[in-house]
Design goal:
The complex is a heterodimer of chains A (112) and B (115). Chain A has 112 residues and is mainly β. In chain A, 0% of the residues lie in helices and 50% in strands. Chain A has strands at residues 9-13, 18-23, 33-38, 45-50, 55-56, 61-64, 70-75, 84-94, 97-100, 106-111. Classes of the chains: A mainly beta (112), B mainly beta (115).
Chain lengths: 112, 115
Amino acid sequence: DAKTTQPTSMDCAEGRAANLPCNHSTISGNEYVYWYRQIHSQGPQYIIHGLKNNETNEMASLIITEDRKSSTLILPHATLRDTAVYYCIVRVGGQAGTALIFGKGTTLSVSS
Amino acid sequence: NAGVTQTPKFQVLKTGQSMTLQCAQDMNHEYMSWYRQDPGMGLRLIHYSVGAGITDQGEVPNGYNVSRSTTEDFPLRLLSAAPSQTSVYFCASSYSGGRRSYGYTFGSGTRLTVV
């Protein structure tokens, strides 16, 4: 199963774009990259996922490098409510299908 | 549409007691998973399932049992509670492959303390 590496913490000014990097150099061809975030002690919230093309939704954009060894999550206009732990995850497979393996994530602090 | 419902929200157990954490989803999701999160740590996968009758172990399965008799329910059983199992437990569900969205929906968690 592919592992991910993320910076421990990042800071961002309110209103600016937050760019969160993730390395997944051992990802296999059919594994998706997922991004989730966890605000305080709530359950994780799905943000976005992708395979090899860049993706955008109402929350964020996901940029995946052509060799798929790294990706960047972009929050275009960060707000104080975006302060959270952000997890970059790849899917794992087994007898029961797939599940998510979480790493330590990046703690994003947005300040005014 | 309730999403993923976990009960109870809080529980205190004595060492050696057993209990079942309940998880139910009403989205007809095939995949369901259980995670634990210790203070200041990330989530660790306990057990997961792709449908009724099929389960598999995750990263930290010892001390826990699961079964999946219906699509909607995925209970987690603590066989003999230990203080090391004090944690927040999250249940999650998702559609299986072939759907447009593979995003997991998480419940709000069960906060368990073992004394």
